[in-house]
Amino acid sequence: MTNDDTTAGAVAGPGGTPPGPSAVRPGVTPSPADAVLPPELAGAARTLFGDRLDLAAAYAELLATDGVLRGLIGPREAPRIWDRHLLNCAAVAERIPEGAAVLDVGSGAGLPGLVLAIARPDLTVTLIEPLARRTSFLVEAVQGLGLAKTVRVFRGRAEEAAAGAGAEPLRGDVVTARAVAPLDRLAAWCLPLAVPGGRLVALKGASAAEEIAEHAAAVARLGGGEPTVHRCGEGVLDAPTTVVEIVRERVVGPVRRPAAKKSRGGRSRRR
Fold it and tell me: How high is the mean pLDDT of the chain?
């Protein structure tokens, strides 16, 4: 990753430079007051963000205003930005090694990737997002928060990032994802982005164990090790964050479709 002040301005990937902000949503009046840190969460916020708490607060205000205006955060979510989004994502930092390169798949409004970049200035983070209105927001957020030296934005799908569409293939020590897809599809998209021995760290809910049981075989076929469940932020958050971790143990090539069988007349056909 190039560490200069222009990194976030040039969106890599096949989508090119995104257009400007989307139109204002009818009937939505975002308020910065929704981003105020609740007193009961102040201790946890200081623990997770340290001396970058002011930067986290600036991002919270951006989500509560511009994020709502652009439809990236629902209006009803705005008053819950700290507990449901920022603290929930920041707790995952305990599972990420010092100085790691992090790829955040389906970053949306920057969750968890941008939160991790705020909480952990030692990380380099790439936000992978295919939708233009979201990448536009992400580029502006990275620049506005002064994070362009450690954060870049890739406009495109995870498969395109792994294949190197428009640039070199992207690889990271840790690949994160939040509320993107079931574990089998998530592993198919994210494991190719991890270096061998790297990890997928997926934020999941209370049904994580059931999801592992259902998709463990698919994960193994994709080169992943045995998925493990971890609870992040215990002793700090009232509701710790549940994550599923999968190590990329083997490099598996792309799945190929079987060759079409030919009929007696010489024409190919598929079942």
Answer: 87
